[in-house]
Amino acid sequence: MSIFAILASLATGLMLGLFGSGGSIITLPALIYLVGVPAKPAIAMSLGIVAVTAAISSVTHWRRGNVNVGVAAVFALFGAIGTYGGARIGVVTPVVVQLGLFAVIMYAAAWRMLKPATVAVPAATAIQGNGTLVLGGGGGTQMGPIVLHGLVVGVLTGMVGVGGGFLIVPALVLLSGLPMKQAVGTSLVVVTAKSVAGFAGYVGAVAIDWGVMGLFTAIAVGGSFAGTFAAKHMSADSMKRGFAVFLVVVASYIVIKELL
């Protein structure tokens, strides 16, 4: 790989460790524009790379108490189901539609992260500090918003070939009421499950360059440790603003490069 592709690999891990998302936002364009991988194989490989990197990074966050196990389990389960279905749709979707949708989703996520919001956790749902999700009366219906978000985000991210953290983190902050740092750690668990499901949906339908994928993954894992360390020393507000600006920059590049 070129020096730029290697730097992109490091940045992939850095973004996942720092923000709990953003890995595929770097990986996908890097595989297409720097390594020369065709779009659909690049989408599949991006999911595989992010799955491994996010899994390793999520362990570190879990050890620090930054993973809400209850929310992660529900979001990951339904997100994986939606992602597998979205990946099967993505196999037959025109590339220009996939990349265009990719850019639109990033703009929307950035807007949500920059928009001031007052987060309130529903009365029937309480998230305890020890990482468990406690439901009030009414059974599982209170989980409806998280389940729906998991399915919708899963389908979208399966189609465009990303782990979906840039959608999951805002959802966890705004919908589930998690603090930013806990949302990052929880997002990594969800991203892992969804990326595995998405990768499985593409395997056999597109050609995978296992050598490039393995090398990219190894370098990204190293970057994830640096990102996790940096996240420990950053404020939640700085992380949100930085992540939103990054989304706008990358989305604008894709629009200019692919659509204009």
Could you describe the 3D structure shown?
This protein is mainly alpha-helical. The chain has one domain (3-259). It is built from ten helices and two strands. It has helices spanning 3-19, 23-34, 39-63, 69-91, 95-114, 144-160, 165-174, 180-202, 210-231, 236-259; strands at residues 125-127, 133-135. Strands 1-2 form a two-stranded antiparallel sheet. Helix 3 (39-63) runs antiparallel to helix 8 (180-202) and helix 4 runs parallel beside helix 8 (180-202). The two termini are 28 Å apart.
Q: What is the topology?
A:
Elements: H1 3-19, H2 23-34, H3 39-63, H4 69-91, H5 95-114, E1 125-127, E2 133-135, H6 144-160, H7 165-174, H8 180-202, H9 210-231, H10 236-259
Antiparallel strand pairs: 1-2
Helix pairs in contact: 1-2, 1-3, 1-9, 2-3, 3-8, 3-9, 4-6, 4-8, 5-6, 5-10, 7-8
Considering the chains and any ligands shown, give keywords for the structure.
74% helix, mainly alpha, 260 residues, 10 helices, two-stranded antiparallel sheet
**Category by helix and strand content:** mainly alpha
Radius of gyration: 17 Å
What portion of residues belong to β-strands? Answer: under 5%
- Summarize the main sheet: 2 strands, antiparallel
Distance N terminus to C terminus? 28 Å
| Count of individual domains | 1
pLDDT < 50 stretches: 118-142
Shape: globular
Q: Average pLDDT across residues?
A: 78
Helical segment tally?
A: 10
Helicity range of the residues? over 70%
What is the number of E strands? 2
Q: Report the order of strands and helices.
A: HHHHHEEHHHHH
Strand order of the largest sheet: 1-2
